[in-house]
Amino acid sequence: EVQLVESGGGLVQAGGSLRLSCAASGFTFDDYSMGWFRQAPGKEREGVSCITNDGSTYYTDSVKGRFTISRDNAKNTVYLQMNSLKTEDTAVYYCHYARFGREYWGEGILVTVSS
Known about the structure:
mainly beta; 4-stranded antiparallel sheet
């Protein structure tokens, strides 16, 4: 059974940092790209960042230069280091991966950035 379990969210002041973690199980982690999405109140879910199995990374424009995605294949974990957080980064963050056209999501974790 595939499981994606996020941790590391919480409340932080604008300008602060948080690191999200996603522990994956139930599939061969090394073989797949992993991603982070987020959904802000009243908005659609959007892609934030992803990392391929060979370590290439991609970011949505609004987080470039502030967020860093990484993975530890030995721990089956993907991370999202979030620096210089802004109030508009407030959202529920979801870990994601897809295989053979099927998508898998974590339950999500709340990140709240206060002004």
